[in-house]
Amino acid sequence: MSLGVERPAEAATPAEAATPDEAATPAEAASLADGPPVVDRLPEAGAWLHRHLLDVDGLSWPDVELVLRTTDAMREVLARPIAKVPALRGTNVTILFYEASTRTRVSFEIAARNLSADVTNIAVATSSVTKGESLIDTVKTVEALGARILVIRHPVSGAPYLAARHFSGHVLNGGDGWHAHPTQALLDLYTMRATLAGAMPDAPVRGGRFLSGRKVVILGDVLHSRVARSNVWTLTAAGADLWLCGPATLLRGFEAWARAGAGGAADRRFTATSDLAAALRDADVVMALRIQQERMAGGMLPSLREYAARFGLTAERLEEAKPDAFVLHPGPMNEGVEIAPDVAAGPRSVITDQVTNGVAVRMALLYLLAGSPGGEMTLGA
Ligand code: CP
């Protein structure tokens, strides 16, 4: 059953969908001749109230479930011969990345195009940023050029929050410094849910916290990881028994956070440890993290070789986990350092699924944000 796509006035609706005359290819025209494509099984309109997505710390569990359900609907769109719906037709999505990226940038671009948005990609290296233009002036400039949704990555923690104060549309954080990577955490959660359900792409939405009773380990350079910080919120919200593991120098500050729990909540405590064997024992899910040499001050690790020898995720070490445990990595990987090549490419790896799911999750988030109230500031909440 098609629920159609109900939208506030500023966004496109199925009634405004492309017609066969507007199709780019004969195949697209044939598809459009049967009527406008719509997103099926969409959650109820108006359920998403957040104007921006700056981190996951302000999302309630029903918000997270809404993202997961909307992602299910987007996966159905992606399974079609023509994976395109007109939901964001006429909406400009500007992608402004001040840091290198492959997965996040490209998947946001594909996601926006799949929703029929107009996409503008700004390469900072060839923009007026190199002439000294400030972040605020850049944001105001892209808005004046028509941007309605701004996807931003920045090496400085908090930069997307500053951008959101000066942008009248919607801001999506594509990763800021060590602080947050909300879309990565949501795609990681979606991948865990789908893998545990064992039936991608139609994993059923289970009510409640589907990681309850599951041990999830995040292993590696936790200190510099915005992925780990955002995952703490979503994984504990999903009920996981979460363990963060790495050398003591790369866990600093996390022990206190672990004892207090995410948001200071007793039922969202987690474990921070350098005991690799204890962390991996009977794990259901293991996520390896890249050693971020570009963010690392001297003296944190004796050498990459020693890190690999003591903390690298090898097939032998993975034997400590449950037999059906699976492995994630947000990428990019340093194979042979934090993860052995045979583990990264092995049968337990769902790393490629993470990348694929990134498109559907980002389609869902673009869709939800475009339909959210746009008047008031709700930074990260
Ligand atoms: N996981 C991640 O953010 O990858 P990119 O840096 O390639 O976007």
SSE blueprint:
Layout: H1 26-33, H2 61-78, E1 92-97, H3 103-114, E2 118-123, H4 135-144, E3 149-154, H5 159-165, E4 170-176, H6 182-197, E5 215-219, H7 226-237, E6 241-245, H8 254-260, E7 271-273, H9 276-280, E8 285-288, H10 304-311, H11 315-318, E9 326-328, H12 341-344, H13 351-370
Helix pairs in contact: 2-13, 3-13, 6-7, 6-13
The structure holds phosphoric acid mono(formamide)ester.
Residues 101-104, 175, 184, 330-332 line the site of phosphoric acid mono(formamide)ester.
Question: What does it look like?
Answer:
The chain has 381 residues and is an alpha/beta fold. It folds into two domains: 156 residues, Aspartate/ornithine carbamoyltransferase (Rossmann fold, 3-Layer(aba) Sandwich), CATH 3.40.50.1370; 174 residues, Rossmann fold. The protein is 34% helix and 12% strand. The protein is built from 13 helices and nine strands. The strands form two sheets. A five-stranded parallel sheet has the order 7-6-5-8-9. The protein has a four-stranded parallel sheet with strand order 2-1-3-4, with helices on both faces. Helix 3 links the parallel strand 1 and strand 2. The longest helix has 20 residues. The radius of gyration is 21 Å and the shape is globular. The chain starts with 25 loop residues before the first helix and ends in an 11-residue tail after the last helix. The N terminus and C terminus are likely disordered. The structure holds phosphoric acid mono(formamide)ester (CP).
